Structure formats: structure tokens, C-alpha cells
Amino acid sequence: MDTDGTEQDRGPRTGAGGVWLRPAGRARREAPPLSRDRIVEEAVAILDEEGAGGLTMRRLAERLGTGSTTLYWHVRTKDDVLDLALDAIFAEVPIPRGESRGWRADVTALINEWRATLLRHPWSAALLGRPMLGPNVLARSEFLYAALLGAGITGPHLTAAAYGLSNYVIGSALMQATWPADTEQAVRRAAGERLRADRERYPVLAEHGPLVADDDRDGGFALGLAWLLDGIEAGAGSGGGPRRPGVPAM
């Protein structure tokens, strides 16, 4: 029976992220001439064209001109394919090289490239809750943490800063990917009419709300990122992070 492979061989090293936790197996001598790289390349193409819902092991095998059984020589499950595809697109995010322009410029460059990559692959942001243990993801996470550490952010503040930046870029890309521009314009027009009609009840939203303000996604993202980095920079200047509520300044 042909399945998508997401329920096969369930265990601690199967499911989402399992592909990174299993030892790399030897290629069997009788395995057909199909590489993992080719599988991942075709999987990304399907995901770009049809989204995560369009990817099945059967569909992938058909695109590769082979059978599902042949596919399972190289990947155990659909979860494996998704994990590998996610890590593959992270290779498109360039890591700032050469002489550093400062931690803030380096982090800004990384985050902007990360966002651009997620928007080129609109299916990806919704899958980023999976364990991210592939080499491309880890290399970029290492760079982000190292840059923040170099700015003087340490301990739990380091994790909070990295999570804040990651959640910001993922949330922004997810909103943009799931709300196409043509749909957004129609909603914005309807929302503007509704808020203008209820101006007395919602005066601030009618004048300044996100659904009536100018739609500049790139500019809005850049401004929000600058605010986040301002906060991180201020925290670094005060000893690694903000004070806890109720704790007076020394």
C-alpha cells in the first residue's frame, strides 16, 4: 500500500526532525540511481508550485519518474522530505562574510535575507515550527547567536533576543504569504469603510489602524526590525538585557 510516509516507522527518530537524528545509512548497492539532492530539489519545486498540501510521496515519485518504493531507498517519510527541503532553502540565505560592519549591520543583513528567502518559498514559514537541525539552518543560527553574543547579550537575554528576531521574521513572512496582495487590497477597502462608519467607536483605528494606513510591507518590516534592534542594543548597554519588572535600577 502506498502512503505519504508520515506514519511509517514512528519512533523517537522518526517524524518531524527525525532525519537529522538518525545516523546516515550506507547506500545499498542495489539502490536505484536517484540521489537525495535530486529528491530535495524536486520536492522544493513542488512546494513552490503547490504548497505543502501538494507534496506527497507518490506525487514526488511521479515527478522524479520513479516509484514510491524507490523513493524510500533515500528518505523514510514525508517528514524527512520536508525537513530536508526546509534546510535546503536556508542555503539561499547568505551569511555575512569578510570584515564585520558591526553586529547590528550583520544581524540586519541576515534577517533581511532570511525574510526574502521565506517569501520566495511561501510554504516555508508555516513549517518552521519543526525541529530545525539541518546544517544550513544551524550555520545561520550560529552566526546570529555569535553576533548577539558579540554585542554583549548573554544568558537568557541572548535566547530572548534571538527568539524575538526569529519570531518577527517568521511571523511577518507568514502573514505576507497567507494574505496575497490582491486579497489584502479588497480587505483593506472593506475595513476602511467599516472603520469610517464606526469612527466614533474606533477613532484611533479609523485614523491610524493597520488596515487604513499606507501599505508598505518592506518599509514596515524595516522599521519594526529597527525597533527590535534598538531594544536589543539598549539592553546590551545596560548589562545584557532589560531589568525584570519591579527590580529597581542600581
UniProtKB/TrEMBL annotation:
Keyword Transcription on entry:
yes
Pfam families from the xrefs? Answer: TetR_C_1 (PF02909), TetR_N (PF00440)
Q: Name one GO molecular function term.
A: transcription cis-regulatory region binding
Q: Which UniProt keywords apply?
A: DNA-binding, Repressor, Transcription, Transcription regulation
> Residue ranges of region Disordered?
1-33
- Keyword Plastid assigned to the entry: answer is no
A GO BP entry is: response to antibiotic
- Top-rank taxon, per record: Bacteria
DNA-binding region, as residue ranges, is located at: 56-75
Q: Which InterPro entries match?
A: Homeodomain-like_sf, HTH-type_TetR-like_transc_reg, HTH_TetR, Repressor_TetR_C, Tet_transcr_reg_TetR, Tet_transcr_reg_TetR-rel_C_sf
- HTH tetR-type domain mapped to chain residues: 33-93
This chain belongs to the protein called AcrR family transcriptional regulator
Organism (species): Planomonospora venezuelensis
